[in-house]
Amino acid sequence: MKLFIKDHLSIVVLYLVTFFGLFLVYDWLDGFEVGGKGYFVFVSLVLLSLFLLYRYFTHRKVYGQLSSRLAKPEDMLIQNPHSSLEEAYAQSMRANLQLYHSQMNQLKNRQQEYQTMLNHWVHQIKTPVSVISMLTQMNEGNEDFAKVQASVNKINYNLSQILTYLRTEDFAADLRIEKVPLREAVSEVINDLKDFFISSSVYPSVSIEGDLSVYTDRKWLKIMLYQVMNNAIKYSDQGKRVQVIAKIVGM
After folding, report:
1. pLDDT of residue 243
2. pLDDT for the residue numbered 199
3. What are 179-213's pLDDT values in tens digits?
4. N or C: which terminus of the chain has fewer CB atoms within 10 Å of its end residue's CB?
C-alpha cells in the first residue's frame, strides 16, 4: 500500500491542483448555484477515489510483489493477472526466471565437469604415489626413504581431503554435529602425522583433560587440527615440541 501511495502521489497532487484551479475559475466566471460548490467538491473527490480504487485493485499484485521479501525466485511470478500491467510484469518475470534457471544449469554443468576432471586427476595421481609408497616400505631402514614416506603420507592425506570436498555437494547436509572427545580427535591426527613429526625431529605434547569433549563435526574438526599441526611442524625448529593444550576455563 505504501508503494502504491508513493507511485500515485503525483497524480493526486496534479488532480487536486487542477480541481482547485477549475473550481476558482468557474466560481470567478459564473459562480455556483446554491449548494453547487459542495456538490462539485463531492463529485470530484468521488471520481478521484474511484480512479485510485480501480488502479489499486487492478495493479495490487504488482505492488505486493515489489513490496514483499521473496523466499525463492518462483515467488516473483504473478498468477491470474488482472490488468495489462500485471500481465506485462508476469511475462517479464517468467522470462527472467527462465534465464535464471538456464544460467544455473550452465553453472551446475560446469561445476560437474570440473568435479569429474578433478576426481579423475586425483585417482590418476594416487597410482604413482602408491608406487612410491611401496618403494619406501621396501627400504624401511633407510633414513632418506623415511623422509620420502612422510611426504607421501602428506600427499595421500591431501588427496583424500580433495576427494572429501568433491563428495560434499552441500556443506550443511554434510555436517553431522555430535559429541567428540577432543583428546581422541587430536590423537588420531597426531597418528596420521607421526612420520612427519619424526622426519622433522619435532615431537607432539598433548595436555587435554580426559573427559573434555566438543560438539562439532568430527571430520571437519580433524581437517582443522591437521592444518594447524601441519603448519606447526613445518615452522618449528628441530628438537622443539608442538604443544596441544585444552582445558575448561571457569566462567
Report:
1. 92
2. 75
3. 999 999 999 888 888 877 887 888 999 998 778 88
4. C
CA distance 40 to 19: 10
Distance CA 77, CA 89 (A): 8
Domains and CATH numbers, the chain: 2-68 (no CATH), 168-246 (3.30.565.10)
The amino acid at residue 123 is H
pLDDT at 19: 66
Please enumerate, as own/partner, the contacts of 193-197 that have beta carbons within 8 Å and a separation of 24 or more.
Answer: 193/153, 193/226, 193/229, 193/230, 193/233, 195/146, 195/149, 195/150, 195/153, 196/150, 196/153, 196/154, 196/230, 196/233, 197/233, 197/242
Q: Is residue 55 packed enough to be buried (19+ CB in 10 Å), middle (13-18) or exposed (0-12)?
A: middle
Q: Is the pTM of this model over 0.70?
A: no
Give the burial class of 232: count Cβ atoms within 10 A of its Cβ; 0-12 exposed, 13-18 middle, 19 or more buried: middle
What's the pLDDT score for residue 200?
80
Q: Which long-range contacts (CB under 8 A, 24 or more apart) does 198-203 make?
A: 198/146, 198/150, 199/146, 199/147, 199/150, 200/150, 200/233, 200/234, 200/236, 200/238, 201/238, 201/239, 202/232, 202/233, 202/236, 202/238, 202/239, 202/240, 202/241, 202/242, 203/240, 203/241, 203/242
Counting other chains too, the contacts that 119-125 makes at CB distance below 8 Å and 24 or more residues apart are: 119/163, 119/166, 122/159, 122/162, 122/163, 122/166, 125/155, 125/159
Amino acid found at 9: L
Is 57 within 8 Å of 10 (Cβ atoms)?
no
